[in-house]
Recover the amino acids of this structure.
């Protein structure tokens, strides 16, 4: 069924018109022709076009979703406590080893997300347009990327891990509140996902510190960000409309006007290492769970579509990867204009997409998801990689539960790690703590090198 829970919640303040939202102000006789020219009259609520699930299949999907959610939450928590917790001393002694271990464990956990959504919940994730360039296939002096994604629901960033190899290497830009979540939030902070307070005065230094740290360790950094800043809903549309009227820009209904400052700062901070910008559009042809609760209750989408456009940095600001990035007002203006232009194209693309009947909704030029653990369609037999990932995380979670039940040292260790995470989160933030320790080690190395050079000269 087409997004029934979402419609029930939102119809009081807005109307959903074939996939896009109409605020009460825009849903007037004189506003629609001016604000949404070109849209044909359609039903207020799209008819249900998918077969209605039987009570038995609905219960089965709900049970699979709840069990999957329990595995995801427990594995993230135990991984953050027992594996990442055991790695904490390495943050003082060997930051590169620490970064490799915690990032590898998070990488393995995102593989579990892929297996659960593509294999167990049978969400068919499809990629259209351009392919991603495999991470670290280019020299360390180039190859970095920024991925820009529209934020249709609160769950868009989860499904993207089903697109194959590339998304498992990206550092996602998320709201600071998510970093405080026990387990998954702690682990992502340890692995240097970028949690922002959405105030550039507070976030600018943190963005630069994370990028510098990752470039120093890996030579490349791959960032996924949501320029809109929040997901599409009646409240965010009203805020976007207010901004559009103030700036003399068109009103949008399938997207929100992007915030350009964060994008500009990431381009500046990555600098000459930046090779590509990926403009990615996400859309849902059928059901569209809007939040975590809807998904938890068994309302997983049947399909999620991602349309990828790969832009070499030379086509955006007129310089090639490896060249220094101009840090001037004209470059920032060009980046802002480019981003706004892409979002207007995205708005038109989504309008045309949702005007089609649900069964016909797709983007042009479907491509193979390179490195995906489960081939599309999702009912195909699982490969050995998917089986091993699922088996590992089930056994790991059961082992940790058993350890807590039978071993008091394990309980003390878990308690100490929990206290550490909570205290550090309150004081500075886990990600900031990791960066601070890495910088301290780097300064000690530089001091030791300088001292050795002086002694050699003497």
């Amino acid at each position: 069924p087409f997004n029934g829970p979402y419609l029930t919640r939102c119809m009081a303040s807005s109307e959903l018109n074939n996939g896009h939202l109409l605020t009460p102000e825009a849903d007037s006789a004189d506003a629609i022709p001016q604000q949404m020219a070109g849209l044909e009259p359609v039903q207020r609520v799209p008819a249900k076009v998918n077969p209605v699930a039987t009570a038995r299949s609905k219960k089965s999907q709900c049970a699979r979703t709840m069990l999957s959610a329990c595995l995801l939450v427990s594995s993230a928590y135990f991984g953050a406590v027992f594996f990442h917790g055991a790695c904490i001393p390495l943050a003082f002694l060997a930051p590169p080893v620490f970064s490799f271990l915690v990032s590898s464990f998070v990488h393995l956990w995102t593989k579990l997300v892929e297996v659960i959504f593509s294999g167990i919940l049978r969400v068919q994730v499809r990629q259209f347009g351009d392919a991603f360039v495999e991470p670290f296939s280019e020299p360390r002096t180039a190859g970095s990327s920024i991925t820009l994604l529209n934020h249709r629901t609160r769950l868009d960033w989860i499904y993207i891990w089903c697109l194959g190899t590339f998304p498992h290497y990206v550092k996602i830009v998320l709201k600071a509140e998510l970093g405080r979540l026990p387990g998954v939030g702690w682990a992502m902070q340890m692995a240097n996902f970028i949690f922002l307070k959405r105030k550039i005065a507070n976030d600018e230094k943190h963005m630069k510190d994370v990028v510098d740290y990752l470039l120093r360790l890996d030579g490349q950094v791959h960032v996924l960000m949501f320029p809109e800043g929040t997901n599409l809903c009646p409240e965010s549309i009203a805020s976007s409309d207010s901004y559009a009227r103030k700036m003399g820009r068109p009103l949008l209904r399938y997207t929100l006007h992007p915030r350009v400052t964060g994008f500009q700062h990431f381009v500046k901070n990555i600098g000459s290492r930046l090779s590509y910008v990926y403009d990615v559009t996400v859309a849902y042809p059928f059901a569209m769970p809007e939040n975590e609760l809807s998904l938890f209750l068994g309302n997983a989408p049947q399909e999620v579509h991602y349309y990828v456009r790969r832009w070499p940095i030379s086509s955006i600001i007129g310089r090639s990867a490896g060249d220094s990035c101009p840090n001037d007002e004209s470059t920032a203006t060009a980046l802002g204009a480019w981003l706004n232009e892409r979002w207007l194209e995205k708005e038109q693309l989504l309008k045309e997409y949702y005007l089609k009947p649900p069964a016909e909704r797709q983007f042009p030029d479907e491509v193979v998801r390179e490195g995906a653990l489960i081939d599309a369609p999702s009912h195909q037999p699982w490969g050995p990689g998917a089986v091993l990932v699922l088996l590992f995380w089930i056994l790991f979670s059961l082992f940790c539960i058993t350890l807590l039940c039978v071993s008091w040292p394990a309980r003390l260790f878990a308690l100490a790690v929990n206290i550490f995470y909570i205290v550090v989160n309150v004081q500075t933030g886990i990600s900031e703590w990791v960066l601070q320790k890495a910088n301290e080690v780097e300064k000690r190395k530089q001091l030791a090198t300088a001292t050795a050079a002086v002694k050699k000269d003497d």
